[in-house]
Amino acid sequence: MTRTISLSDEAYNLLKSIKRKNESFSDVIKRLVGNKGRLIEALEIYPELAESEEFEKSVKNLREKMDEEAERVLDEVH
Length: 78
Hints:
By secondary structure, the protein is mainly α. It has a domain at 24-77. 65% of the residues lie in helices and 0% in strands. The protein is built from four helices and no strands. The longest helix is centred in the last third of the chain and has 25 residues, at 53-77. The radius of gyration is 13 Å and the shape is globular. The chain starts with 8 loop residues before the first helix and ends with a helix.
């Protein structure tokens, strides 16, 4: 399943700048926030992200959606 999300040009360009050659944008996001501790990787590499309100909103929104999806999957299993 795929979802569409909106990103500011600034957030898109930041993600694009850390995207690896054979990596999708989904892969970049999963690498950075898949385990909550890994987000610090991005902030260490790009400290300006910490000051980006759009990036913070995007990450918060993504985490909420991931939490909702996890809850949905768990409900289906039980």
